[in-house]
Design a protein that fits this description.
2 copies of one chain form a homodimer. Chain A has 149 residues and is an alpha+beta fold. Chain A is built from 7 helices and 4 strands, in the order βαβααββαααα. In chain A, strands 1-3-4-2 form a 4-stranded mixed sheet. The structure holds a DNA duplex (30 and 30 nucleotides).
Chain lengths: 149, 149
Amino acid sequence: MAQAKYFELSDARREGFFNISEAAEASGVSAKMIRHYEETGLVPKAGRTVAGYRIYRDADVHVLRFIRRSRDLGFTMKEIGGLLGLWQDKRRASADVKKLAAKHMADLDARIAELQGMRRTLEHLVHCCHGDGRPDCPILDDLAGAGRA
Amino acid sequence: MAQAKYFELSDARREGFFNISEAAEASGVSAKMIRHYEETGLVPKAGRTVAGYRIYRDADVHVLRFIRRSRDLGFTMKEIGGLLGLWQDKRRASADVKKLAAKHMADLDARIAELQGMRRTLEHLVHCCHGDGRPDCPILDDLAGAGRA
DNA sequence: GTCCACCTTCCCACCGTGGGAAGGTCAAGC
DNA sequence: GCTTGACCTTCCCACGGTGGGAAGGTGGAC
């Protein structure tokens, strides 16, 4: 990632590097997750100081922010790997990006529809339940017997 | 769960018990998950034959179906634990069930809104991307720079 | 020199589900 | 009887993402 070799931390700072918590702060990705992304290969290994501290440049933080934004849009790690590849490939076809995004949109639609289905059923049940001190409850009755009662 | 002790499997069947795969089939919960629910204490420990095979009665299958149905409505394991408790408590107040269900509905609403927010943003981006062989792509531009460009 | 904040690695947890290995058991066919 | 294949058991590992925390090393300020 940083491609830098074996600075003292103070030197690294002078050269414009961040340590991991600064990179986390600037990118919105937690230090924990930055390490995790490195470990899983989503981002290349960070440069290190002589003492073994990870150091990051602006460009690295930029990558992390890209990941953060992608997560915010609900892309999976795998998809983000693909997006990063496309982002860094200057000869990419925008159609490839669009395709990936459209696929993800379809996934979101499916998930939304699923949740809305649950919500509708639940709304009906909640509506039917008088919700007082008595024990009889159509919600439980449905859970207990739906599809065969 | 089954409260039965140490049958031979053939005896158990005559007494109306199911083995785990029959219970799975009848309840819609996989054998794998039945064991898992037992291990986590969501359902009581099943009875066993002398050979150690789990055996289930109709009532046990009924419980499993309750769980399955609850999962289908998106309840978490924890919530299902609560629902099971209420279901089996004949002196429950239906208000308690309604409250749990209403809370879950609110959770669903929040999740749906979140996904719809993602979807809206994504739709806009996909719409803006010409999606041809050229590399320039507003989707990647947004992921790379949103919030500071 | 001391102190505290930060860094490192490592392991564990969540939730829900599935895969698969290694070994025991049941029932059917011969 | 014995073999065969389907099933059972327990155990561990994986996924996606994120967090908690322990144990030990460092950086920098006073």
